[in-house]
Specification:
The protein is α+β, with helices and mostly antiparallel strands and about 300 residues long. Helix content is about 20%, strand content about 25%. The chain contains seven helices and twelve strands. Strands 5, 6, 7, 8, 9 and 10 form a six-stranded antiparallel β-sheet that branches. The chain has a two-stranded antiparallel ribbon with strand order 1-2. The chain has a two-stranded antiparallel sheet with strand order 3-4. A hairpin with a 2-residue loop joins strand 11 and strand 12. Keywords: Signal. This is Flp pilus assembly protein CpaB.
């Protein structure tokens, strides 16, 4: 009987120590605070309602700063706040991550602007560009000048390290939903616009570039923010070899063909004729600029090698 009582006492002592460690290390139950968490996944811009949030017990020592406590929950839910970023089930709802104002303007830094540009499935990197990605923006347009033709194109790296805020009206990184009937027919989701976050000067550049040419998004590594070397690519940079300018080709095509001489004229001695007048070479447009050196002004070609 004595050995049995000793065994019971030792067992109670052991399990009491284990319970004390689990409850706070000193045998005292850990204190908790009831805070508001997401009851289900809440998308960006979605309203936080009593149906999508609930109160749970949270360890008092690890309550996140700005968490909504039980005393504040009713007033918080009555304000019709919305999430400024997506929340997952069980994640604490922080007041700094919610707003009762317009969602996009609430998330923009003070010195940044949101601007939308037109894109399609190809210029949007086949749908791989998602909100939150980092891209470069390339502008393709005709070479500036009144005599430039549609074939004289140039590509310029317009902006670098630009954050994508939204694709069309979606600001989440979830894949775009595609109708099953369209998917069976091999159709792809159609994109019409991308919303980018840029500074005020970048917003002006994008607004003007959308009017003068075509904009293309170039997806880049999100961890690589090293600026690339700015350069303009011309048709002559696409490959080596001789390229006939479009203006010269048109001039040669417009020149009249020489009439064939009769057979009899070949047997008779040809009369002496004066040397033909030299044909003027076709004019090839090259952009120029005025250069002032002191009081002397000169006109210099900025494309001395042509195409």
């Amino acid at each position: 009987m004595l050995f049995g009582l000793a065994a019971v006492w030792l067992a109670n002592t052991y399990f009491g120590a284990v319970a004390g460690q689990a409850g706070g290390g000193n045998g005292v139950a850990q204190q908790t605070v009831r805070i508001l968490v997401a009851k289900q996944d809440i998308a960006f811009g979605e309203a936080i309602t009593p149906e999508s949030a609930q109160l749970v017990d949270w360890p008092a020592s690890s309550v996140p700063q700005g968490a909504v406590t039980a005393q504040e929950s009713q007033a918080f839910l009555a304000k019709a706040n919305s999430a400024v970023r997506a929340l997952v089930t069980g994640e604490p709802i922080l007041q700094s991550r919610t707003s009762n104002r317009a969602m996009l303007s609430a998330t923009l830094p003070a010195d940044q602007r949101a601007v939308s540009i037109p894109i399609d499935f190809v210029s949007g990197v086949s749908g791989f560009v998602k909100p939150g990605d980092i891209v470069d923006v390339v502008l393709t347009r005709a070479v500036p000048g009144s005599n430039a033709t549609a074939d004289e194109q140039m590509a310029t790296l317009l902006l670098q390290n630009v954050s994508v805020l939204a694709i069309d009206t979606s600001a989440t990184d979830k894949p775009a939903e595609v109708d099953e009937s369209r998917s069976r027919r091999g159709k792809v989701p159609e994109f019409t616009a991308a919303t980018l976050m840029v500074d005020p000067l970048g917003a002006q550049k994008l607004a003007l570039a959308a009017e003068v040419g075509k904009l293309t998004l170039v997806l880049r590594n999100a961890n690589d923010r090293t600026p690339s070397v700015l350069a303009t690519v011309l048709p002559r940079d696409l490959g080596s070899g001789m390229i006939r300018p479009a203006s010269a080709t048109a001039a040669l095509a417009a020149a009249p063909a020489a009439a064939p001489r009769p057979v009899a004229a070949r047997r008779a001695p040809a009369p002496r004729r004066s040397a033909p007048e030299p044909v003027a070479a076709p004019q090839i447009y090259r952009p120029t600029m005025a250069v002032l050196r002191g009081t002397q002004e000169s006109v210099e070609s900025v494309m001395s090698n042509g195409y």
